[in-house]
Design brief:
The protein is of the alpha/beta class. The chain has 2 domains: 1-36; 57-198, Glutaredoxin. It has helices spanning 2-35, 89-104, 117-127, 139-144, 170-182, 187-198; strands at 57-60, 66-69, 79-83, 108-113, 134-136, 151-155, 161-166.
């Protein structure tokens, strides 16, 4: 009887110790979650910067229509340019996400590529991209100094660059909208300003 009571007492002690350990770990996870900031689009230092007027470029879409990049849009509208390629696996995953994102955020979207037209037409067919909204040529990429894909540029209704950067997820696309709404070039600069204001 005494041995049974001792073993039950030890078992309860272990259960209580494990419960305290789980609570301590849960607290640490919460602390880490607060400290780890969300990642935004990665901005390179090349090309026109955030807050600058976009280069005005006259380009032609795959469907043959003329498009003016950097033109004034309807008030309150914005243009999301997404630089993609048929040979980029991340681009292929991001294209449907970007189409859905542009619809939900009421953005105009323009896909930009620089490859063989037949290759780009395969991309258009595969993802149901409007060929009137796909430009194939080096002009825009060279003007923005795009060197890695997928890359996104968000222009406001006056043709000013609101945000830009290397993107590979919906969260990165959302960080472009946050940058436009807050006026900060990056999500990291916004979080830094919030932390400084709290001190």
């Amino acid at each position: 009887m005494t041995l049974l009571m001792i073993s039950q007492g030890l078992l309860w002690g272990v259960v209580i110790l494990l419960s305290l350990t789980v609570l301590a770990l849960a607290r640490q996870v919460g602390v880490l979650h607060e400290r780890v900031a969300p990642a935004g689009a990665l901005i390179n230092g090349a090309g026109p910067g955030v807050g600058e007027k976009s280069p005005r470029l006259e380009v032609q879409a795959l469907a043959g229509n003329a498009i003016t990049v950097g033109a004034t849009l309807a008030t309150g509208r914005a243009l999301l340019m997404l630089f993609v390629s048929q040979s980029c696996p991340i681009c292929k995953k991001l294209i449907p996400v970007a189409i859905d994102f542009a619809k939900s955020e009421r953005l105009e979207v323009l896909f930009v590529g620089d490859a063989d037209a037949a290759e780009q037409n395969k991309l258009v067919t595969q993802f149901g991209i409007d060929p009137h909204r796909f430009v194939n040529g080096p002009e825009i990429g060279m003007a923005y100094r795009v060197d890695k894909l997928p890359y996104a540029v968000l222009l406001d209704d006056e043709g000013v660059i609101s945000a830009k950067g290397l993107v590979n997820s919906r969260e990165h696309l959302e960080s472009l909208i946050i940058a436009r709404e807050t006026g900060f070039a990056t999500l990291q600069s916004y979080l830094k300003a919030q932390a400084e204001a709290a001190e």
